[in-house]
Amino acid sequence: MSICTPPRAAIVACVADATHDEPHREGLAQRLNWLRAGVLGANDGIVSVAAVVVGVAGATSHSGAILLAGLAALVGGAVSMALGEYVSVSSQRDTERALIAKERRELREMPAEELEELTDLYRAKGLSADTARQVAIELTAHDALAAHLEVELKIDQADVVSPWYAAFASAVAFTVGALLPLAAILLPPEGWRVPITFVAVIAALAVTGAVAAHLGGASRLRAMVRTVIGGALALVATFGIGTLLGTAGLG
Ligand SMILES: [Zn+2]
To answer: 117 C-alpha vs ligand 1 centroid, how far in Å?
Structure first.
């Protein structure tokens, strides 16, 4: 039902290389990831609910039927988004926890090999053998686990995201997006419903496409064209089907 898949890994991923001396950079990157996921979630809400209400409006002019179908699409979509996000963030968290546990065990059972490994990783980053060894020794003394997680696995324990939070956020984003086509189809007079919804959805998709691309550092124009064409095709398809079924007497 979605034309854009929210970057689930991006939600969870954070800037592992940012040090704790630079809280601003780390916080900003994370906030941008959340914002981008939110915009894409809203995008899903706009397209899927618009497609449903326009399809029903093609078959019937009955406002109650359009409202009912739109609300069902909103609730179904929001729950499905939340569920997908919950499952995906949970499994990512499980993977990270398993890696953390493995690293902890290795540090306990073979500290010498682990120190050697950390030294090699810093040498690979460009430090001289002596400096790499010194860095590895000092980091191991300070917080061996955090040092290994950062350099070896690019995990920061403080950034492990709650699946409940991720699920809630994506459901809210979808709902916010879904409210636009619902309002656009229900508020105008009958003859204007579908054209106004079409225009409102296209305009909103141009904005969400551009914002998401900007946040993700991609080409704005290309993203706008893609989301707008995708959304327009969805609306034309469901309106066509609704009109056909309505003419056939199913409205
Ligand atoms: Zn290690």
So the answer is: 6
Question: Tokens 């609704």 sit at which residue?
Answer: 242
pLDDT tens digits along 13-61: 333 333 344 445 556 777 777 788 888 899 999 999 999 999 999 999 9
Q: Which residues contact 73 (CB under 8 A, 6 or more apart)?
A: 48, 49, 52, 53, 178
Alpha-carbon span 115 to 36, nearest angstrom: 39
93 Cα to the center of ligand 1, angstroms:
19
Q: How far, in Å, is the centroid of ligand 1 from the Cα of 148?
A: 5
Q: Tell me: the pLDDT tens digits for 162-179?
A: 888 889 999 999 999 999
What are residue 194's phi and psi, to 5 degrees? -70, -45
Short-list 193, 177, 218, CA closest to 2: 177
Per-domain residue ranges of the chain: 8-247
How crowded is residue 164: how many other Cβ atoms within 10 Å of its Cβ?
Answer: 13
Distance, CA 107 to ligand 1 centroid (Å)? Answer: 7
Q: How far is the CA of 23 from the centre of ligand 1 (A)?
A: 25
Write the DSSP assignment of 61-86 as a string of letters.
Answer: --HHHHHHHHHHHHHHHHHHHHHHHH
Q: How many whole angstroms separate alpha carbon 105 and alpha carbon 120? A: 20
- pLDDT at residue 55 in the model: 96
What's the 118 CA to ligand 1 centre distance in angstroms?
7
